[in-house]
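Q: A reviewer asked whether we had any structural model of the full assembly, not just the individual parts. We don't, so I'm hoping you can provide one. Inputs are below.
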Amino acid sequence: MRFDDFRAKAFKIALEKGCESAELFMQDSEETSIKVLEGKVDSYDYSHTTGANLRVKHQGKDGYYYTESFDDPEKAVIKAMDNALFASSDEHPWCSESVDIYDMPEVDLTAEMMSPGDLISLALDAEKYALESDKRVLRMDYNGASTFKQTTLICNTLGQNSAYTKSAFFTAISPIVGEGDEVRDSFAYLTGADARNSKVLAKTATAMAIAKLGAKPVAGGDYKIILQSKVATDMLGIFCSQFSAEAAQKGLSPLAGKEGTMIAAPCVSITDDPLHKYNPRPFDDEGVASVVTPVIHKGKFISLLHNLKTAKKAGVKSTSNAGRAGTASGIGVAPSNFILKEGDTSLEMMLREMGDGLLICEVAGQHAGANAVTGDFSLMASGFKVENGKVTSPVDQIIIAGNFNRMLCDIEKVGNDTFFDLPLGSVFASPSLYIPKGIKVSGE
Amino acid sequence: MITQSLAQRALDLALSKGGDFAELYIEDTESNSLTMLNGDTDNASSSRRVGCGVRVVSGTNYVYTYTAGLGEKDILAAAQAAADATDAEKQAEAIEFEVKAFSAKIEKQASDVDNSFRAKLLLDAHNAAKSVDSRIAQVKAVIADTDKRVLICNSEGLFASDRRANTRIRIQSIARDGSETQTGMASPGKGCGYELFDRIDVARLGKQASEMAITMLTAPECPSGRYPVVIDGGFGGVVFHEACGHSLETTAVSRGNSEFCGKLGQQIASEKVTAIDDGTIPGEWGTLSIDDEGHPTQRNVLIEKGILKGYMSDMIGARRMGIARSGNGRRQDYTFAPTSRMTNTFIAAGEDDDEEMISTLGTGLYAKTMGGGSVNPLTGEFNFAVNEGYWVKDGKIVSAVRGASLIGKGGEVLMNIDRVGKKVELAAGVCGSVSGDVPTNVGQPRIRIKELTVGGKGGAL
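A: Here is a predicted structure for the entire assembly that you could use as a starting point for your response.
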């Protein structure tokens, strides 16, 4: 039985069994990724999968069942109806209006044009450039390229029937460099049309790895800190659940009820922009047409991110932030493109203004050393010592500890070098941030 | 799940353009979870994942394709796609299958319990957690189960089915006092069905989670610096998992990306340390009859009295290094090609006394409950969080401390272990790596590390 047949039968059975409504969220994904090492194709992965998440409204509550097998619509309906009985009793309205996708920004079609052969030759080039760029480059830990295409369809018995297709293309490399007994690595990637530039990718990554040679901890204490754009972006990703109305309504966000108050320094503005050309989507994961949401405006907290359920509870409109952790997951809240607005200070100017301090370029251990409920973090970090406004020696094996919410207030300068992370699911973007106080460093 | 004749055709097709080995990984997994928030069921979900992964290997390189669904057309299309991407010497021979069937011992199947049954267990956990203290603001409890059926067939004639069950409960208590918020957690899991709940006391676990949250609520921030650290048994084994386990997987070692490369037979740890990876322990969270390449699991001695004895390998890792396979080829599901992964991996029992480790510690940290962490296998640099820690002064516990984290390098820490206790405890975790998330047990007795970097925001205590 194929999907269309499964859909027709599941909807019919659900309504016959007394469900108020039924919906299918279907994603059809195709992915090719190749890895090249030592001048040879080391691995080649190709996949094509279709999965569908059935949602029914039964006795006023929503129940889900995800399946990749379309041969038993009745079992799907029965399981979903049983799950509905154990769902929360908060009212969850459904979206009955289809979305016209023709108002979307033009999508980058690079991914569609890349053949497996193209991916392989880009990766072969990248490895060659990386090895040629410096004699301390030993080998690649990872070197590959991927294309990804996904069609998302939502249709329900209330009239919703919308679909869109997104695609992505990226190349990534992780060179290993060494000198004496010491080895270091780095990771860099490029996306979209830029990802064709193997030379830039290879040079960026090897320069990053080589700069780490000789890194050592600094003495513990209070330092002025610049979080480089990539790290600032990581921090947004780690703490984004604080901006979710779902977390707030469950008592899991310190920002609950703080709308209208100052929660960040006046130089900080954050927007959730589902239509941003980097990673656009016409509607969210429950079919609500995309809208741009100001989250923080010049330090003032404007809005949490809502789906239809949290919006109903709060008496506001959905901000089109229904999100699913995967096709198999139920509907929660997730950012689309969550962007901290850049300022006009370059990283060089920021370094000069700081004078002496630390430039943090990497953090690790996010899933263990950070608590979004409290905002506390304690993360292994590396980067560079900054003396008299200049980057001097590399630093590693330190821990930076602080609190995200206090940090938002302590930001003194916002850079002009926005970094976007990979265009899969929620995208976070931030420029470098200068934080002159409040972050504690443990080291030697 | 599929017939021998379809498997045969798919494998032949996969090898039609070369390669010396082809494999099908067929999976049909049902899972359920029920979440309770503050005593009310909040979310119930269930899913069925069905699909097939096809791998064609030439030497140490491979092509991997996968498709959802187990229709003949889907499987043959995946096999064709794998063949189309292969460009190698043809070495295929006629396949003759030897059929084998394995299954974990499952006494109470997930399909025999319903959401009401799950809800009752969650409510017991919730009530016990809530009763600990009026400052317990929220209790979240989740029961999750998976029932996974796999069939692994390959061009060497393997046609082996296996059934695996994993069941787990997770209780999180949040304590609040004014603007202060702290969390406590308990989350045991086993490789079995719902008989798990005949063996564990959910009320006791709920209490334990809440007591931890309350203790941390009034704890000062942990001081930072270089200190001796005692790490408790059970989930404390995450230290070894992160700092050493990943660096002993052939995924890292075979490419020279591990600090333990080329060190077989050498001393890499203090002589108090013996470390084991054992995928055969009955009913454990990380246990498998056969790994995800169909190879039987076994007990692997990784380190014996400080001497490096072996690595954990999958097929390609073993080929790359010219060593035997150790039954560690694992993957999250059919969407991942397998790599070398841990199963139940732990530091074995030693001879030291638990109390003495603290009474002779001087000033330092007693890490009672660890959080998660991560490691760079290339350098051995690791970091992890301490969820429940206590500050020790002059050999006596003086205060609980919050916000502590530990960082170091695997090799250094192993050499610095100066005490290993007598009683090994195992604890369930979910390990994420290149082949996805797999259930693994970490474990150890209480151990002591002479010196480690402790991160925290607090002043002297």
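A: Points you may want to mention in the reply: Residues 225-455 of chain B form one domain. Chain B has two domains: 4-217, 225-455.
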